[in-house]
Amino acid sequence: MELAELKNEWFKTYPTPMIIAGPCSAESELQMLETAGRMKETGVEIPVFRAGIWKPRTKPNGFEGVGIIGLKWLQKVKEEFGFQTATEVANAHHVKAVLDADIDILWIGARTTVNPFAVQEIADALKGTDKIVLVKNPVNPDLALWIGALERLSGAGIRNLGVIHRGFSTYQKTKYRNVPNWQIALDFKNQFPEIPMLVDPSHICGNRTGLFSVAQEALNIGYQGVMVETHCNPDAAWSDAKQQVTPEVLAGMIEKLKVRDTEISAFDEDMDRFRTLISDIDFQLIELLSQRMKVSEHIGSLKKAHNAAVFQPDRWKVITEYAARKAEETQMSKEFIEKLFKSIHEQSVEIQNKIMNDKK
Question: What is the pTM of this model?
Answer without folding.
Answer: 0.78
